[in-house]
Amino acid sequence: MHDHTKLSPLETLFETKHGRALRLTPNLRRLYGNLRMSPAHSRPHVFSNFVSTLDGVVSLQVRGHSGGGDISGFSIQDRMVMGLLRAVADVVIVGAGTLEADPQHVWTPAGICPDLSDDYRSLRVALRKRAPPLNVLVSGSGQIDLDLPVFASGQVQTVVITTAAGAQRLSRRIMPPSLKVHAVPRCRRMIPPSAILAAIARMNAGNRILIEGGPRLLGEFYARRLVDEQFLTLAPQIAGREYGDARLSLVMGQAFPAESMRWGALTDARRGGSHLFLRYTFRTQ
Question: In sequence order, which ranges of 186-250 are alpha helices (DSSP H)?
């Protein structure tokens, strides 16, 4: 079922006083309620945002249906929250698989919810953020299309973090002026999250880091206890799985032992129709 209903406010079911309330525009405060974020210290604050079915599927992995829209039912309230989180972020990180699933997308607040672009822009001004969030694409191979809007449109500054081989492959292409390539030395395949955060730190892009995908990249961050918060939209549908199929869950490529599974603390719960908008904090030490 696709949700084409009018954008209506979320109902706050539960919230803690975790963090400091941001100065949202009156319209965003009406739609979302209070949004509290931890102060941005010298250390990065890493938070993630995903949408999941009731049985834990975040991507159907079917051509034309591998994005989050099929999972959320194209919920406009989910898009509103996605835009809000991008509006408070300094950096949005996505993996090559996420780009492949949505190649025409640009990871800006207006890119996901254009109806609220003025509100998002006003919020970024209030937060002293002059430009859209830096878009960071992680690709070990460097096999990406530089003609896609995220690179070629000039809407955002973009960084590709890749291996030396990936950087060499990209160097043969004509680089759009808004794109930079960062090669991680002595790395051949999976790029360590610590190297991603170190590269972002050297760019002085800011300390609020939003991860939007994909599940394998997020799994690497969870494995190294680098995720501070998880925003999770729970969509009221069951996707199911065949044995051995390719459908993805929130975290892939990692299986934590029973004695060291990642337990979060619920800090926020809101309702939009039959969708739940949940927020958890995780210990990163």
Answer: 193-202, 215-223
Kindly report the length of the chain: 285
Contact status, residue 140 vs residue 162, Cβ threshold 8 Å: yes
Q: Which helix (H) or strand (E) holds 164?
A: helix 164-171
Residue among 197, 256, 266 nearest 231 (CA): 266
The predicted-structure confidence for 219-249, as pLDDT tens digits, reads as follows: 999 999 999 999 999 999 999 999 988 899 9
Region of 274 please: left (phi>0), alpha (psi -120 to 50) or beta: alpha
- Do 183 and 167 form a contact (C-beta atoms < 8 A)? yes
b/e burial code for range 230-259 (CB count within 10 A of at least 16 → b): bbbbbbebebeeeeeeebbbbbbeeeeeee
State the DSSP string of 60-129.
---TT--SHHHHHTS-HHHHHHHHHHHHH-SEEEEEHHHHHHSTT---SHHHH-GGGHHHHHHHHHHTT-
Using an 8 Å Cβ cutoff, are 272 and 10 in contact?
yes
Q: Which two tokens stand for residue 114?
A: 């254009």
Task: Tell me how far apart the alpha carbons of residues 14 and 183 are, in angstroms, rounded to a whole number.
Answer: 43
Distance CA 194, CA 221 (A): 8
Tell me the whole-structure pTM to 2 decimals: 0.95
